[in-house]
Amino acid sequence: MDWSDLERPTPQWFKNAKLGIFVHWGVYSLPAWAEPTAELGTVEDPLEWFTHNPYAEWYYNTIRIPGSPAAEHHRKEWGGCDYDDLLDQWHMDSFDASELMELFKESGADYVVLTTKHHDGITLWDAVGTGDRNTVKRGPHQDLVGAYADAARKAGLRFGTYYSGGLDWHVRPFPPHTTHESVNEGDRPRDEEYAKYAAAHIDELVERYHPDVLWNDINYPDAAKNTTEPYGLGQLFARYYEACPEGVVNDRWKVPHCDYVTSEYQMNLDNEDLGIWENCRGLGLSFGYNQVEGPENGPHPRTLLHTIVDAAVRDGRILLGVGPKADGTIPEWQADSLRAIGRWMQVAHPILAGIDHRGSATASASDDAWAEVGSDGTTEFLFAAPEDPTVDSAEFNVELTDASVATVVPVQGVRVDQDGTCLHISCEAGWAGPAIIELSK
Known about the structure:
The chain is an alpha/beta fold. The protein has 2 domains: 3-354, Glycosidases (TIM Barrel, Alpha-Beta Barrel); 359-440, Immunoglobulin-like, CATH 2.60.40. It has helices at residues 12-16, 46-51, 59-62, 69-78, 85-88, 97-106, 144-154, 180-186, 192-209, 233-243, 301-312, 332-354, and strands at residues 19-23, 111-117, 158-163, 213-216, 248-249, 261-264, 277-282, 316-322, 357-358, 362-365, 369-375, 380-386, 394-401, 404-409, 414-419, 422-427, 435-440. The strands form 3 sheets. Strands 5-4-3-2-1-8-7-6 form an 8-stranded parallel beta sheet. Strands 9-11-12-17-14 form a 5-stranded antiparallel beta sheet, with helices on one face. Strands 10-13-16-15 form a 4-stranded antiparallel beta sheet, with no helix packed on it. Strand 11 and strand 12 form a beta hairpin. The relative contact order is 0.13.
């Protein structure tokens, strides 16, 4: 076979999906600590980024960097214990997958992606070859992947599996990463043995859980970047598509085939010009739960709504990260943010589903507001809101060119009045999100 044999149309469900939920949950959720420093892609010095890494899920790497605040925190709070000792201390008395899926569904999301194995190598199912280094044999003593998969589908959500094929700090230990080159090229597994190990895991995930998304991270062992071997990615993808005809794979395998490309926070934004895409980011600065992080470390829910709209009109979607606590519950500030997003998405969801490019109409907002026009190929929609998402009330104007108002879609707390080609938009206390106006040519 050839890589081109894997090409096929993008499944309609993924084209329609404009919001997904990215769940980072693992042993790192127990110490739950990182410095809330900055977004990925905004720190120029790699050593500074890795030494003060805001990603709590990278705890195992950061505590091994000499002199890092995380290393000092681990010494003081956890006695400098081995990372694997944390697995035996991980318990979850409050875990209710169905309750979580209700929250994710309420947010307006269409799919949820769970970290089945992060870079620490601990799996959330009894994966072949892991011995007792998984959540079935130790710690929670549960198949957490199965719990999420079942609950997601019962809630009407598509389910995806994140798998770190590019790094495994236990099976293929390297010195702690302090540069991006170390992560992506220098210190990652490339060999055939590890390629077979990873392929066995992915085959298991497909056979057991039938994921709608295979979300690989970082890279993949070079020995598997072929279409000829059973453990090669070409054969693996073919088996996946046969088992899951509506499944999609991302681009982080670093091979010629993918169903969509990705960006992360402010990193790899150029990918968003390469076709159907997805940007992942956390509600804060970390994907995994960080106990010292709060709403002040992330964008306002109304800012995230602007991000979702901006992605939709450019054929993209947002994979929004939440970090459950070790007990399986979502931090209240993150749950509040999801509910706030959901208030607007209840109205906007069916409209956004069809939008995949910018409209031809021009909308010019006053300096204190933003406006975007998206099209589903038949109908164009205007979205507009104040630039400052925190205001309790605001008034602004939008000037329309090459279009007129067909219908004003009701949005809580938002009123639209028209004076010729000028729209006067008022946002009152408790406004849910951007105004939505269906346009006619």
